[in-house]
Amino acid sequence: MRAEQRLDWFSRTAIDDDITLLVEPYVHELLRCNIWHVRGRERDLLVDTGVGVAVLSEAATDLFDASILAVATHAHMDHSGGMHEFEQRAIHSAEVAALATAQENMRLDVGSYDEATLVAIAHMGYDISGGLLTEIPHAGFDPATHELQATTATMVLDEGDVIDLGDRAFEVLHLPGHSPGSIGLYDAKSRLLFSGDAVYDGPLLDELDGSDVEHYVATMMRLMALDVEVVHGGHGSSMGPKRFREIVQQYLDLRGAA
Ligand SMILES: [Zn+2]
Question: What is the pTM (predicted TM-score) of this model?
Answer without folding.
Answer: 0.95
